[in-house]
Batch of 3 targets.
Target 1
Amino acid sequence: MNMIVGLLSLVSFAGIAVGLLMCVFQSQRPRGKSFAFYGFVGFVFVFSFALFQGPKDSARATASSAEAIASQSPAPAAPPTYKEVLAKLKVDSLTWEKEGFGSIMKASFVIRNYSTVDVKDIVVTCKHSSNSGTYIDSNTRPVYERVAHNSYQAVIDFNMGFIHSAVARSTCAVDSYSPA
């Protein structure tokens, strides 16, 4: 196989050389351009074939590639810590309203789990502020649902408990969880 690739490379180089030599003479210039062009195309073809030919000795190459993969593969990843998982739990799409004569907070939100661990019994804390931005109060409630890794769970009309009458804004976040 190496001999054929070498012979084809030699022929394509000869085609390029003959084509360029023919370009020197005015009468042979069109033919010389063709020879040089096809010699170049042949060389590119042979070069790309030789480049992607693959290993010469398949048994030795397989053994060496297996050793290379074994040496490059990272050690098994340690499971994420509690804080790492907690940092990847988010409360999104929060909407809320006051119910029960303006004294109860009903919230709808989505708990997103961007971690690689399934979680359950997620504790959500909502911090409330007034129109001026002053922190007024907070509510903390557990959501007894299971959220798979890289997934989400919608929580609709969840009773967050009593709320101050002056609350105008609220933000919610995950405080803790239990591994599922």
Note: Residues 139 and 163 are 8 Å apart (CA to CA).
Target 2
Amino acid sequence: MRIVVLFGSEMGTAENVAEAMAGELTGHEVSVFDMSEFDIADLDPRIFHIIVCSTYGEGDLPTGAEPFFEALDAQRPDLTGLRFAIFGLGDSVYDDTFNRGGEIAAEKLVALGGAQVGEHARHDASTEIKPTAMGREWVRTLPLEHAALSMSAAAAS
């Protein structure tokens, strides 16, 4: 299965998590991209996407993710058939906006026809759990076989 891991980061943590996840996905063809350098025209329903997105400021998308989501808002591509999973990073000290970056990412992809797969992971920087360790553990729980079957069915129709 082809998997693209996209990260949106402010301080580099999301990139580290994305790379750690890619290391766990042995047996798959995995590519990791910074969202700021990824063309939304390359969002392909035949490829499973993992979005690793931090939260910045008052619940905003990180600077590294802004160009990607601005392009989605401007071009509004049809993402029907696109399967994706979200790993969000945040800090629970910010009660109302905790992990909002990942939530915004999921909302925007779903609004364009994408389908979220698996549990929406929400790392909390206020815990002792390392984000890369949580990312490695979480990515192993993703129902990739189910996503692959769904993507095959969508590609065939």
Note: The chain has a mean pLDDT of 93.
Target 3
Amino acid sequence: MFRRITENDWELYRHYVDVFYHTDVVNAPVPEENYRATFDEMLRSDAYVKGYIFECDATPCGFVLLSKTFSQEAGGVSVTIEEIYIDPEYRSRGLATEFFDWLKAQPGIMRLRLEVEDYNEGAKRLYERMGFELLPYLQMVIDKQRQGSGSS
């Protein structure tokens, strides 16, 4: 089971994002002000980002964060699963599968995309079972937060 994040979920969201960014499946922690900016954007509009809380028997047990773009290559909306985390004791209960099945069935979404660390074999197996395929190219990025945003 899952539900949209609401304004009352700040502490729960902050907790799960903090746990996620302090696991070995991410490259580096993210500043807490980024958590707040994302949360505020989710509440402001769903044009760029949506968040959901996973629940099992009405008990919160994780979260998922989605972002959205339009892809000419895919012929429509592309949704990126930015972050997904389920508490270890609630894994293997079908929560992620239920969410991805629901997401794949949403009208207008032409592509689902996610990133996974190469060494995260369990996640890669799960995503492959759900139909995800490896892309044959690398991603590149300019991250202004890490470079500093000033110019010379």
Note: The chain has a mean pLDDT of 91.
